[in-house]
Each structure stands twice: as structure tokens, then as C-alpha cells.
């Protein structure tokens, strides 16, 4: 059973790596590892140590992703990405990383603590995985921001051509979600006590959620609660851990409370419906083409950042 669990964990770690795009710096080592560690590379004065490289190499072996050379390249890219994120104010809440770790643990039939122990048994600090996931999420946000700035879009003619190429004579099914956002505002710089209080209020709101039609009236009974209609989203538009939870939430219910830059947030699924039309086929094809286009833009963006970076090998 233990071997089966580890095989499943390795497989899912590999899937997580592909889905979340890009990777991170490594975590806080044990005292003896710190003492033995030395700086191998500097990226704009940010160090990458021998411990970092050893940890990443070990993690890559678990996911089938290469050896030390690949680990070094990933760490350099990630360091550059974190520096870029800090410059333009992109931040990934730790709660999103917590959710991703929980998801990996659940799908490997482990608790997060058990996952931590299993990784430690393979020589990998859990913080190594956490930072890698956080870097993937950070890079995804950076690329999406660049796309919005450049106004990237897919040509209608390209969508039509792809539809003809892929068509097998049948319609495509997708699910449409009507969503609502409920934010329990936590001002910047507030104490942890206020954040915990707001999280408890969000949990209570979630347990008594009256549906989207009654959420505004219920929110008015509380201070500092904002309700926003997010409109319609299709299955293809709901990506990453947040999208996964929305898709798993029944109509008339909300997701679990999540910490964001604005405070503690719930997302309500007001209604869902299944679409089985050519319009769904168009949307799916457009999303596929946009994904490919975004990959290319991400490569160009990374090449641009590496060209500007000062990388010093020791």
C-alpha cells in the first residue's frame, strides 16, 4: 500500500507541475544542511545555494523531470520570475498553495502531514514543493497580466479553421456557471485577529447562504462585506485550484473561504447549465488556440526577462 501511494503521489506531482506552469526557489533547510550549503549562483544578487539545487534535483527525480542541469535552469527562471512579480506587485496568497497541497494529498489518499513525511522520506522538504507550486502560480499570473496588457486575442478565421480540422460531426458539451463573489474585507496591515474573525464570519455566512438572490440582503446585515456578480464562466475558463473548487461546488452553494488581497473571499455558484451547441465548440476551440498562443507569449516573456537579468555562476 505504501509503494502504491508513493507511485500515485509521484504521478500527481508530475501532473501538478505540468498544469501550473513554471517553478520556484527552495525552502528552509535543516540546520546541518544550512551549514553545508554554499552559494552556487546569483541572479540579480539573489542567491541559489547548493542546498536549493540538491533539493530541486531530488524533486525532479520524483516527477521524472530531469537532473541537476534542469534543476539549475528551473531555479534561475523561478528567481527571475519572483523578482519580476515583486517589481509589479503580483502576489500569490499562501492559502492558494495550501489548497494545492491539500489537493495533492487528497488525490494520493494521504493527509497533508502524511504527504510531508513521505516527501521527507525521499529527501525532499515540503517547503521545496510549496515554493515550486507558488512560483508556478506566480508565473501564470504574470503571463496573464502581460496578455491583458498586449490585448492578445485569437482570430475568428483561426477558430473556424481549427473547427473544420477537428470536427467529427458532433456538438461539444460544456458547463456554464453563473458566479457571485462575496468579499469579507480585511484592510491592509490588519492584525491576524481581525483576519481570523472575518474568516469565521465567512464560514458562518457560507453555512447559512440563502442563494445568490438573497446574498446581498444577508451581506447588508454585516459590516465590510461586498457582493459582486461575476457573470458567466464556462468549464474551460475555470482553471487551476480555484477553478477546480468552483466546478466541484453545487449550484446554490459557495466555495470554502479563501484569503485574497482584499480579505476573505467566497465564490457562490448561482446556477449551472449544460451547453451542447456549436457555440460551445467555438468556445472550446478558441480556448485551446489561446492556450497555445499564451505558451508562446510566455516563452518570449521569459526570454526577455533572462536577457535583462545578471546571472553569476560560482
Task: Give a structural overview.
Residues 69-141 form the SurA N-terminal domain. Residues 235-260 are annotated as: Disordered. GO terms for molecular function: peptidyl-prolyl cis-trans isomerase activity. Keywords: Isomerase, Rotamase, Signal. InterPro entries: OMP_Chaperone_SurA (IPR050280), SurA_N (IPR015391), Trigger_fact/SurA_dom_sf (IPR027304). There is one protein chain. With 314 residues, the protein is an alpha+beta fold. The protein folds into two domains: 2-148, Triger factor/SurA peptide-binding fold; 157-279, Chitinase A, domain 3 (Roll), CATH 3.10.50.40. The protein has twelve helices and eight strands. The protein has helices at residues 2-20, 31-36, 50-63, 68-88, 94-107, 112-121, 126-150, 156-166, 192-207, 212-219, 240-248, 278-308, and strands at 39-43, 46-49, 172-185, 225-234, 253-254, 258-259, 263-277, 311-313. The strands form two sheets. Strands 3, 4, 5, 6 and 7 form a five-stranded antiparallel sheet that branches. A three-stranded antiparallel sheet has the order 2-1-8. A hairpin with a 3-residue loop joins strand 6 (258-259) and strand 7 (263-277). The termini are far apart. 28% of the residues are buried.
Which parts are unreliable, with pLDDT below 50 for 5 consecutive residues or more? 15-31
Head-to-tail CA distance between termini: 44 Å
User: What is the annotated CATH architecture of the largest domain?
Assistant: Orthogonal Bundle
Number of strands: 8
Main β-sheet: number of strands, strand sense, barrel status? 5 strands, antiparallel
Instruction: Write down the overall mean pLDDT.
Output: 81
Count of separate structural domains = 2
Task: Tell me the overall shape.
Answer: globular
| CATH fold title of the largest domain | Triger factor/SurA peptide-binding fold
**CATH class identity of the largest domain:** Mainly Alpha
Radius of gyration: 22 Å
CATH superfamily of the largest domain: Porin chaperone SurA, peptide-binding domain
N-to-C order of helices and strands = HHEEHHHHHHEHHEHEEEHE
Number of helices: 12
* Helical residues, percent: 55-70%
Please state the structural category: alpha+beta
Amino acid at each position: 500500500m505504501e509503494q502504491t501511494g508513493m507511485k500515485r503521489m509521484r504521478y500527481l506531482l508530475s501532473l501538478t507541475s505540468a498544469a501550473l506552469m513554471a517553478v520556484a526557489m527552495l525552502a528552509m533547510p535543516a540546520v546541518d544542511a544550512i551549514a553545508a550549503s554554499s552559494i552556487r549562483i546569483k541572479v540579480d544578487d539573489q542567491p541559489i545555494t547548493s542546498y536549493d539545487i540538491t533539493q530541486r534535483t531530488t524533486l525532479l527525480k520524483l516527477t521524472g523531470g530531469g537532473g541537476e542541469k534542469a534543476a539549475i535552469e528551473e531555479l534561475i527562471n523561478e528567481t527571475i520570475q519572483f523578482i519580476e512579480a515583486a517589481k509589479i506587485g503580483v502576489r500569490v496568497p499562501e492559502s492558494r498553495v495550501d489548497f494545492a497541497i491539500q489537493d495533492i494529498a487528497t488525490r494520493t489518499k494521504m493527509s497533508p502531514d502524511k504527504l510531508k513525511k513521505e516527501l521527507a522520506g525521499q529527501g525532499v522538504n515540503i517547503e521545496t514543493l510549496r515554493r515550486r507550486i507558488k512560483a508556478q502560480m506566480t508565473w501564470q499570473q504574470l503571463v496573464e497580466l502581460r496578455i491583458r496588457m498586449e490585448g492578445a486575442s485569437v482570430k475568428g478565421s483561426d477558430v473556424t479553421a481549427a473547427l473544420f480540422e477537428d470536427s467529427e460531426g458532433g456538438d461539444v458539451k460544456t458547463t456554464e456557471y453563473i458566479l457571485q463573489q462575496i468579499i469579507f474585507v480585511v484592510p491592509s496591515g490588519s492584525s491576524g485577529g481581525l483576519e481570523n474573525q472575518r474568516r469565521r464570519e465567512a464560514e458562518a455566512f457560507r453555512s447559512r447562504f440563502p442563494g445568490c438572490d438573497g446574498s446581498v440582503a444577508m451581506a447588508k446585515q454585516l459590516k465590510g462585506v461586498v457582493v459582486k456578480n461575476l457573470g458567466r464562466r464556462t468549464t474551460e475558463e475555470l482553471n487551476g485550484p480555484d477553478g477546480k473548487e468552483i466546478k466541484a461546488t453545487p449550484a446554490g452553494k459557495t466555495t470554502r473561504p479563501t484569503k485574497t488581497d482584499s480579505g476573505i473571499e467566497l465564490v457562490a455558484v448561482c446556477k449551472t447549465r449544460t451547453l451542447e451547441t456549436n457555440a460551445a465548440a467555438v468556445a472550446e476551440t478558441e480556448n485551446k488556440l489561446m492556450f497555445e498562443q499564451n505558451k508562446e507569449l510566455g516563452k518570449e516573456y521569459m526570454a526577455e526577462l533572462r536577457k535583462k537579468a545578471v546571472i553569476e555562476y560560482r
